[in-house]
Design a protein that fits this description.
Helix content: under 10%
Radius of gyration: 14 Å
Oligomer: single chain
Number of helices: 0
Largest sheet: 7 strands, mixed
Distance between the termini: 40 Å
Structural class: mainly beta
Shape: globular
């Protein structure tokens, strides 16, 4: 079991950048890590995924603008967001999904607000 804490959200102008971090209370090496987001009135959606081997996947809406990375030694996952758009405004959540080889379990952070506005 891990506890997750996101940080790095804030207010940024369109075209700007933010770097979100997700700090875990323990080792994340056995977890597939996700960034989700939820905009007001909308369902939570997957933004980016990084597997235990470092394989990444992105939602079409953020490809080429967002980059997910992980540092297992520091128990952190990062989401670098560039060329932000107003439609990126949402609460961003980190999730840890235990890889099936090791069992089952999903753990969520509390979220961090990202607002893109001029």
């Amino acid at each position: 079991q891990v506890q997750l804490v996101e940080s790095g959200g804030g207010l940024v102008q369109p075209g700007g950048s933010l770097r979100l971090s997700c700090a875990a209370s323990g080792s994340i090496s056995r977890y597939v890590m996700y960034w989700y987001r939820q905009a007001p009135g909308k369902q939570r959606e997957v933004v980016a995924t990084i597997g235990t081997t470092g394989l990444t996947n992105y939602a079409d809406s953020v490809k080429g603008r967002f980059t997910i990375s992980r540092e297992n030694g520091k128990n952190t996952v990062t989401l670098q967001m560039n060329n932000l758009k107003p439609e990126d405004t949402a609460v961003y959540f980190c999730k840890a999904h235990l890889a099936p080889l090791y069992g089952s379990g999903d753990y969520w952070g509390q979220g961090t607000q990202v607002t893109v506005s001029s």
